[in-house]
Design goal:
Blueprint lengths: L3 E6 L3 H11 L4 E7 L7 H10 L3 E5 L1 H6 L2 H9 L6 E5 L5 H10 L4
Parallel strand pairs: 1-2, 1-3, 3-4
Helix pairs in contact: 4-5
Length: about 110
């Protein structure tokens, strides 16, 4: 039995591999894995709604560059399961961390 479910949205293969290495020994079940958040988000949000993960691990790099970070995090958190969003970034940039937290990411 897995006490925690998660969704993974990470573009970078290196970051995705690092996350898998960290999660493998933990009692976490990945419900879905995506490379990015599509521009048309209705099917994406339906999937999150249907699968209802406890946590969404979200690579924020592209979203920040596109100016969609806040909208995407708010939309994910507004689904019925209200998953916790953990922002991931390949580089520990204070500005990126602060932007993700202000957008509604929990960690």
């Amino acid at each position: 039995m897995y006490p925690l479910t998660a969704g993974l949205i990470v573009e970078s293969k290196e970051l995705r591999d690092e996350i898998h290495s960290a999660l493998d020994p933990l009692p976490i079940r990945l419900l879905f894995e995506l490379a990015d958040v599509p521009t048309e988000m209705s099917a994406f949000l339906d999937r999150i709604q249907r699968m209802s993960p406890d946590v969404v691990l979200l690579d924020t790099t592209r979203l920040q560059n596109e100016g969609r970070l806040e909208a995407v995090i708010k939309a994910i958190r507004a689904t019925s399961g209200r998953p916790v969003v953990f922002a991931l970034h390949a580089v520990a940039e204070p500005g990126a961390i602060l932007a993700a937290m202000r957008a509604g990411a929990s960690e």
